[in-house]
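Need residues for this backbone.
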């Protein structure tokens, strides 16, 4: 017999709430919820192109999924996401016969202009009834999919030693640029060093070659979490998960509470940096009684008319700090706007009624960032943290969601 591991992040196991959810029951009366195919914790959604065309790739920890860009799903239609066949490694399951966990859990996906990468982990029972990471693996695949439908995952040469030299900060991330030539992928090793990914990894990127996107100086005590390509040869790095490139600028959130030039910035604040100009703060949530009323920004995406941001904080025990929000680019770019915006704009879709403050918005992606929000295909992965049953969240809603203009609302994928 085997018992399945229902979900892991890089360092934690999530507890799931019960499925009774009157909030979503009311929403479903107005917008019937589709049956989701990609359920679970999705930590990234990445772009990848091959000879067959442009694709999106993600994983829920057990399976890698992909779809062809341009394919959308109607309310009653089947999911347009395809499960990638994989004979290279198996998902995590507990073997009562052997008394241990077998297989590998997919922590995160990344991609560059040549390969899709998956970071996986074997887990073990630490003796007190909880699980912990025991050994990491990194694979790449160069086709999406192979002719027989199977993805052939090959270990990245040189990665094992970097991943398993001690420490638990390992991850992969990519610039996820719309331009294929600008797509780069990186590995953050267990010693907090950064490596450019390929079919093999060798030397870490020299500290002098790491440019921070917030204008600060890089030091090895900084934990890099994301990167953006300004061109095919220029990359900037961030200590926040939330960064995205716009038409002539890029946006990023502050990673944690810090002080610069006598001003305190929180991880609720968003900045914009235009080419050749200094960064400016564009969003600072309204404060009351000396308290910042905003929520920690976890993900960013941009359309032709809005900057979307997803909130949540996995390491916090606070619930209600999540949700999806957006800011008008017209307001952001207005010459009359001398101070940061303090209130998000209202949605005309069901975005804030479905991706509510009780859900962490782990990742956001707009398929074509030049399209207006209502005309674009937009994806979001959501999860939650709670103990026991909750009327605010539902395990059935955890996973990948999408907005398609053809159906005009957000729904499960």
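Answer:
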């Amino acid at each position: 017999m085997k018992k399945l591991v229902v979900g892991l992040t890089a360092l934690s196991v999530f507890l799931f709430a019960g499925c009774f959810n009157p909030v979503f029951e009311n929403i479903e009366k107005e917008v019937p919820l589709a049956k989701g195919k990609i359920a679970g914790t999705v930590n990234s959604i990445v772009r990848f192109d091959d000879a067959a065309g442009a694709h999106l790739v993600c994983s829920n920890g057990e399976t890698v999924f992909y779809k062809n860009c341009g394919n959308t799903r109607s309310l009653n239609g089947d999911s347009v996401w395809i499960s990638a066949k994989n004979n290279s490694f198996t998902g995590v399951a507990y073997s009562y016969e052997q008394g241990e966990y077998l297989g590998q859990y997919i922590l995160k996906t990344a991609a560059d202009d040549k390969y899709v990468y998956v970071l996986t982990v074997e887990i073990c029972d630490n003796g007190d009834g909880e699980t912990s990471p025991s050994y990491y693996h990194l694979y790449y695949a160069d086709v999406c999919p192979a002719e027989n439908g199977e993805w052939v995952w090959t270990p990245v040469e040189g990665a094992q030693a970097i991943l398993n030299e001690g420490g638990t900060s390992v991850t992969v991330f990519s610039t996820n640029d719309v331009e294929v030539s600008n797509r780069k992928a990186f590995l953050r090793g267990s010693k907090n060093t950064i490596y450019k990914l390929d079919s093999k990894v060798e030397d870490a990127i020299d500290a002098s070659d790491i440019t921070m996107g917030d204008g600060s100086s890089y030091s090895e005590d900084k934990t890099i979490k994301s990167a953006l390509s300004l061109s095919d040869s220029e990359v900037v790095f961030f200590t926040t998960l939330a960064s995205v490139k716009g038409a002539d600028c890029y946006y990023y959130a502050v990673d944690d509470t810090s002080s610069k030039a006598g001003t305190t910035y929180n991880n609720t604040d968003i900045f914009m940096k235009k080419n050749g100009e200094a960064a400016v703060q564009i969003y600072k949530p309204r404060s009351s009684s000396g308290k910042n009323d905003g929520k920690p920004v976890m993900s960013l995406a941009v359309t032709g008319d809005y900057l979307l941001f997803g909130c949540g904080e996995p390491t916090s025990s606070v619930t209600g700090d999540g949700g999806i929000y957006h800011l008008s680019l017209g307001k952001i770019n207005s010459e009359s706007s001398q101070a940061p915006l303090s209130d998000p704009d209202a949605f005309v879709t069901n975005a804030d009624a479905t991706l509510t403050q009780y859900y962490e918005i782990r990742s956001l992606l707009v398929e074509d960032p030049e399209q207006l929000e209502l005309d674009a295909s937009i994806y979001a992965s959501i999860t939650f943290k709670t103990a026991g049953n909750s009327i605010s969240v539902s395990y059935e809603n955890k996973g990948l969601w999408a907005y398609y203009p053809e159906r005009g609302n957000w729904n499960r994928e």
